[in-house]
Specification:
The protein is of the alpha+beta class. It has a single domain, classed as 3-Layer(bba) Sandwich (FAD/NAD(P)-binding domain), CATH 3.50.50.60. The strands form 3 sheets. Strands 5, 6, 12, 13, 14, 15, 16, 17 and 20 form a 9-stranded mixed beta sheet that branches. The longest helix has 29 residues. It is globular. Bound molecules: flavin-adenine dinucleotide (FAD). Flavin-adenine dinucleotide binds next to helix 1, strand 3, strand 9, strand 12 and helix 8. GO terms for molecular function: 2-octaprenyl-6-methoxyphenol hydroxylase activity; FAD binding. Keywords: FAD, Flavoprotein, Monooxygenase, Oxidoreductase. It comes from marine metagenome.
Length: 411
């Protein structure tokens, strides 16, 4: 439920009501039945915010893996989400100007779909509605956590809302503040940052022919280009473009006239879906690999982009954060049942230990894919030719690649 004024004391406070913070709050309620913990979510942007205001729920679309579908199913949100998603039945990976092509199909992997594309605003609306209607979760928005201070027994938080400042206490703070974290800076939590010198250019785009639920990932001389299938709207065959370009090309491409951009895209993507008939508003996102050096402290755990921000090439950022969420929620549920303190290092270290393998594997998979497929040096071109061919030809490799893409690689 939405509130105007917070109480003085909570068991758990989530800083950031983006995709990860709200998913976590919903998952925790589902795990513990909702009645035994007091939970507050603090979000800086208004929930009724219009276009592209709240960073998590802007104009982008997200490819949810099959594993994430199972997670949303487990926490009772899939039924509502399933009306808003476009299934990915086939993934088509190719390399412009070079041989080597691989296709992954849902039938081969015995699932209804390899993944699902959801528009971030629609995912946001489902998550926010769930929070709003849940008596167990309080949400205050717009409100900003200005500072957190560890005390001997809990965390003290200063929250600003308009002219008011509230001081509250929590046993555990879940920091889901996104990639630019003021709180981490205050606490001296450093990050390892590797700038890819690339931007992701995003736009909704329409084609002459229907996509038939195929997602395309194409590696081009300017960087990986993905077209994710979207439901058609107003008779248009829509897809979502996620195009990685070098930072120094980003402004030029964003400012390009429609016909020049259409030509450039057709040249990179080819004629698979016929002519491009419409290109919507364009947005650019700088891309880095950014990993927090500490994910936990007594009474504090980092979740989502604040813990690890990944390149979108493999669509793994939110999917990994959802798997982290479920492992954390399961450990917190155990702590509640066994009357352990939620913020104790035993509980939090257990979570980190359980998720470490998945995090390392996903980060490495994404980083290597980015580097191999964003580079036209002869060695890298050869590596990806062989990579695509071997994925196509060697069943265990193919299965491994598909499982990672489907969010099942940690099993
Ligand atoms: C172009 C692009 C495409 C992507 N595609 C995919 C994909 O297909 N699949 C996938 O799995 N992932 C994808 N990702 C990654 C995914 O978008 C991120 O992993 C996800 O958005 C992280 O969500 P978050 O909640 O951690 O952070 P954010 O989305 O940044 O949300 C943080 C929230 O915290 C709030 N906040 C910040 N500071 C405070 C404060 N002090 N007090 C209160 N509130 C605060 C902000 O207002 C915001 O709402 C993509 C990323 C990009 C850039």
């Amino acid at each position: 439920m939405y509130i105007e004024t917070p109480e003085k004391q909570y068991d758990l406070v989530v800083i950031g009501g983006g995709m990860v913070g709200t998913s976590f709050a919903c998952a925790l309620c589902s795990e513990i039945g909702g009645k035994q913990l007091s939970i507050l979510v603090v979000e800086a942007f208004p929930q009724s915010a219009g276009k592209a205001q709240q960073p998590s729920f802007d104009a982008r679309s997200t490819a949810l893996s099959y594993g994430s579908r199972c997670i949303y199913d487990d926490i009772g949100l899939w039924r509502e989400l399933s009306n808003q998603v476009t299934p990915i039945k086939e993934i088509h990976v190719s390399d412009k100007g070079h041989f080597g092509l691989t296709r992954l199909n849902h039938i081969e992997h015995d699932v209804e779909a390899l993944g699902y594309v959801v528009e971030n605003r629609q995912l946001g609306s489902v998550l926010n509605n769930e929070v709003k209607n849940s008596p167990a979760i309080q949400m205050i928005s717009p409100a900003q956590v200005e500072q957190i201070r560890p005390t001997s027994e809990s965390m003290q938080l200063a929250i600003s809302r308009g002219e008011s400042i509230f001081t509250i206490e929590a046993s555990l703070v879940v920091l889901a503040e996104g990639g630019k974290s003021m709180i981490c800076d205050q606490l001296g939590i450093d990050r390892v940052v590797d700038d890819y010198n690339q931007h992701a250019l995003i736009a909704n785009i329409a084609f002459e022919k229907p996509h038939k639920n195929v997602a395309y990932e194409r590696f081009t001389d300017t960087g990986p280009l993905a077209i994710l299938p979207l439901e058609s709207f107003d008779g248009e065959n829509r897809g979502c473009l996620v195009w990685t370009v070098a930072t120094n090309q980003s402004d030029e491409i964003q400012a390009m006239g429609i016909s020049a951009l259409t030509k450039l895209l057709m040249d990179r993507f080819g004629n698979r879906l016929g002519k491009i008939t419409h290109i919507g508003e364009r947005f650019g996102y700088p891309l880095t690999l950014s990993i927090a050096k500490e994910q936990i402290r007594p009474g504090l755990v980092l979740l989502g982009n604040v813990a690890h921000t990944l390149h979108p090439v493999a669509g793994q950022g939110l999917n990994l954060a959802l798997r982290d969420t479920m492992v954390l929620v399961s450990r917190l549920g155990q702590a509640v049942r066994e009357s352990e303190s939620l913020g104790s290092m035993t509980v939090l270290q257990d979570y980190v230990d359980r998720q470490n393998f998945d995090q390392q594997k996903t980060i490495t998979f994404t980083d290597q894919l980015t580097r191999i497929f964003s580079n036209n040096q002869r060695g890298r071109v050869l590596a990806r030719k062989l990579g695509l061919l071997s994925i196509e030809l060697i069943p265990p490799l193919r299965r491994g690649f598909a499982e990672q893409a489907m969010g099942l690689g940690s099993r």
